[in-house]
Design brief:
Elements: H1 3-24, E1 65-70, E2 80-82, E3 88-90, H2 91-109, E4 113-116, H3 128-135, E5 140-147, E6 158-163, H4 170-180, H5 195-224, E7 230-238, E8 250-257, H6 261-267, H7 270-291
Parallel strand pairs: 1-4, 1-5, 5-8, 6-7
Antiparallel strand pairs: 2-3, 6-8
Helix pairs in contact: 2-7, 5-7
Length: 299
């Protein structure tokens, strides 16, 4: 049978059957919208619209605003650690606990507004996280994570990442690939400009915010010296999607390794999380004091 003959059969036989059935008064069971055989599934809507979180702290928009991002969440547990008794520890729970502790410490000290990208166990796409900071016009964005060393228990310590298209080393490159592989980069387009001009403007904006981000990263390491354990060469750079907001200084704080017993003990106790919160809060206060020319009051 030729291709042309087959095409004619496919196109015209159903039409002839329908016409004949209509002439004879026969009603054929044709598909209709809303029939039971149409299966419907409730999807999570990860990439749908999102509501901006509430801002806590002083009711004064002139006060600096920090957006704290607890990494992972919902069906995405992040890194998983396990102790000698077989108890599992998910990164998503640790990051939320640290984020809540930092929020509480900042509100206790006063003078700074705070918002959380998530305040419970929900999944949030990478692109939404920096976008929340952008829409809230935040002055600083801190994404909190906890790392994994696989089967090794001897790898420990915190680190801090800033954005760089060229990763600071191979380990940073692998980390960026792992964090980015489930989501897209947060591309920015400036309305009314050509793609080339938009790219230039975004790059200029990123340069300015990157300077602030680098200064803040240095403060975290300085304030954490003697209080927190850091990995060798803890100041790192990687092309992390969550740091792609061009107009908000952004850092990713790796609080430690869930696969290390010492780090895990610190990250899963109230005392340990309070220590992280105090260090980060001091760095935040000094960072904003420097920007307002009042650094002498806190340094």
């Amino acid at each position: 049978m030729s291709y042309r003959t087959l095409l004619l059969i496919v196109l015209f036989v159903p039409a002839v059957m329908l016409t004949g059935a209509k002439l004879l008064g026969i009603t054929l069971p044709l598909p209709q919208w809303g029939r039971d055989y149409v299966l419907r599934f409730v999807l999570d809507g990860d990439e749908g619209p999102f509501e901006l979180p509430p801002v806590a702290g002083p009711d004064d928009p002139s006060r600096p605003l920090v957006v704290i991002d607890a990494g992972h969440g919902g069906r995405d547990p992040g890194a998983i650690g396990e102790d000698a008794d077989g108890r599992k520890f998910n990164e998503k729970d640790i990051t939320l606990s640290v984020a809540l502790a930092l929020r509480g410490e900042l509100l206790r000290q006063g003078g700074i507004r705070v918002a959380l990208t998530r305040a419970d166990d929900r999944i949030l796409p990478l692109g939404h996280r920096p976008e929340i900071a952008r829409q809230l016009e935040a002055d600083l964005f801190i994404s909190i994570h906890a790392d994994s060393a696989g089967e090794r228990d001897d790898v420990s310590g915190a680190s801090i990442y800033t954005l760089s298209d060229a990763a600071s080393n191979e380990a940073a490159a692998r980390f960026a690939a792992r964090e980015n592989d489930a989501d897209r980069l947060n591309g920015i387009t400036i309305d009314g400009q050509s793609a080339a001009v938009s790219t230039i403007l975004v790059e200029l904006s990123q340069q300015r915010t990157q300077e602030d981000a680098l200064d803040f990263a240095a403060l975290v390491l300085r304030e954490g010296e003697g209080e927190l354990a850091f990995i060798p060469q803890p100041r790192r750079a990687a092309a992390l999607a969550v740091l792609r907001a061009p107009d908000v200084p952004s850092v990713l704080f790796e609080s430690g390794f869930v696969t290390n017993s010492t780090d895990r003990a610190r990250l899963t106790t109230l005392e340990g999380r309070a220590q992280y919160a105090r260090v980060l809060a001091r760095a935040i206060k000094i960072h904003f004091a420097r920007r307002t020319g009042q650094a002498g009051d806190v340094e």
